[in-house]
């Protein structure tokens, strides 16, 4: 081992404060960036923030707008944020009951979860109210008569039974299936149920069609929390067979230097004040540069995506082409992580409606000729194939694999088909079968 002084040249990536800020600002959504700017203005007196003009158009805009077109009444529709508890309490007010019963029923209503189910065992609720089980059951049955049907249930089985029993036309087979064979019914053991109940598979199929229309979470239709809106950061507009990409500059407040404070601090004889002013001016300049860089990056990424997905936006039957973050990164000469940050929580107003930029990327599957096919195209083929299948003999995943191989020259594993089917919300062949 030798000891001594040696000269060595190395390369290191130094994460400066300016670079760190630019990275953070790029991954922010417009709303998060606006909040960040206002937070910075509280800490920096030299930062001047000018709010963008308020637009009269709604947060969620239609794909293609005509400037002379009148606003849709839907844009001004009232959003009812009544919770399930408020809705049930309104119905309680219409009942003729004693004050004591009203207090007990109110307590039970607030013991329901947001989805409408009883949150605790009835015994615990009765203990809190110092009621007998019989009195508690009576109160719960009262609530179960309220709308929506199924509210106040203790489990899924009771919820479905309440809805079936409140139907104008009773379906006794469906009620019997839920009451005595619910687990086997969910597992599609229909032949066993058919034999046990002495009914046909067609009758079970009819009961299934009715049960599928029931709501397993009756309280979820009532929104307790405010709805959050998004606004697009870019707009993709068709023009003479091409796509124009516009940056929405009016989303983010304008940032600049407060000239008045700057002159006061610069003209001060206090060395500390001058140093403070220099530091704060530099912060404002960094912020302005980072915001500008963020806008340019999002615009470049949007333009590159629009070029690759041109057919998807211009054609009614167009589908997403295979596209990766790496391809866009190489095209605009940035790192792949930069593209990822520029597309996460960033939305575009397109001829297809409001779309998150991240969703415009699609994985690829190569066919026997080495040509790339997007996963979305395979999903479209699957949807069309399953829609036209014989429902009495639905196609298995293995048969779909064979069909893609023979008809589309595309090799996909059975596991991938199962994954795509789940993403499309299509049940397995055994659950699609009709009798």
TrEMBL record:
One of its GO terms (biological process) is DNA-templated transcription initiation. It comes from Halalkalibacter wakoensis JCM 9140. One of its GO terms (molecular function) is sigma factor activity. Belongs to the sigma-54 factor family. Residues 275-434 form the RNA polymerase sigma factor 54 DNA-binding domain. Signal peptide: none annotated. Pfam families: Sigma54_AID, Sigma54_CBD, Sigma54_DBD. One of its GO terms (cellular component) is DNA-directed RNA polymerase complex. The keyword Transmembrane helix does not apply. Keywords: DNA-binding, DNA-directed RNA polymerase, Nucleotidyltransferase, Sigma factor, Transcription, Transcription regulation, Transferase. This is RNA polymerase sigma-54 factor RpoN. Residues 80-261 form the RNA polymerase sigma factor 54 core-binding domain.
